[in-house]
Amino acid sequence: MRTQTIFPMPESSLLNELVSSLKCLPSVGARTAQRMAFHLLEHDREKGLKLAEAMRAALENIGQCQQCRTLTEHDICRICADKSRNPDTLCVVESPTDVMAVEQSTAYRGYYFVLMGKLSPLDGIGPEELGLDLLEIQLENESLKELILATNPTVEGEVTAHYISELAKKYNVQTTRIAHGVPVGGELDYVDSSTLSHAFDGRRNY
């Protein structure tokens, strides 16, 4: 079995801290973090400073939309503030990247609700962590006619979809589930545009 070679780090606590910080990013291991750190220090210090400033500004000023829970620097996000969208439909997704995927790939013009995760009791993620109390308030809205369940087709995503479907039944809101073309175990932000568009067009009652 081939082992990964990690170069010895120079005696610099700041460099070690930079490398350790970069490792928090997804798919970034020790060696990749080292390469990133050395690249910034050797070739792109100015861009590195801009990156640091952008990250600080984003982390300090971006929060969650009070209505749909997606990421925004305003109290209400751009989509929720758009009165031209269809108030009859509400699409439930797991993450803000799923909102972007749907917006870029389909003709959907309703609103969204972002769970920021999925039900996972073993990880301590229950209905409260997903903001389902806020979703229930929106289900009480008489203008809402259809709830589109667009959670990822994983075991946890299906459990989450079923739980929300049962919740919607209390308010006589029709629930549909995106279907055709989305592979089981897949994630929406990795699905190509035509496949995701077909999945929305072929959604079914749930």
Walk me through the structure.
This protein is of the alpha/beta class. The protein has 2 domains: 13-61, Helicase, Ruva Protein, domain 3; 71-205, Dna Topoisomerase Vi A Subunit, Chain: A, domain 2. The protein has helices at residues 13-22, 30-42, 45-61, 96-105, 132-139, 155-169, 193-201; strands at residues 63-64, 71-72, 89-93, 111-114, 146-149, 174-177, 204-205. The chain has a 5-stranded mixed β-sheet with strand order 4-3-5-6-7. Strands 1-2 form a two-stranded antiparallel sheet. A hairpin with a 6-residue loop joins strand 1 and strand 2 (71-72). The chain is elongated and about 60 Å long.
Quick tags:
Helicase, Ruva Protein, domain 3, two-stranded antiparallel sheet, Dna Topoisomerase Vi A Subunit, Chain: A, domain 2, 2 domains, about 210 residues, 5-stranded mixed sheet, alpha/beta, elongated, 7 helices, single chain
Main beta sheet strand tally, sense and closure = 5 strands, mixed
CATH topology descriptor of the largest domain: Dna Topoisomerase Vi A Subunit, Chain: A, domain 2
CATH classification, class level of the largest domain = Alpha Beta
Q: How many domain regions?
A: 2
Shape: elongated
- The tally of helices reads 7
Global mean pLDDT: 88
Number of strands: 7
Order of strands across the widest beta sheet?
A: 4-3-5-6-7
Class derived from helix and strand content? alpha/beta
Helix content: 25-40%
End-to-end gap: 47 Å
The H/E string reads HHHEEEHEHEHEHE
Give the DSSP E fraction (strand runs of 2 or more residues). 5-15%
Q: Give Rg in angstroms.
A: 21 Å
In CATH, the architecture of the largest domain is 3-Layer(aba) Sandwich
Identify low-pLDDT runs.
none
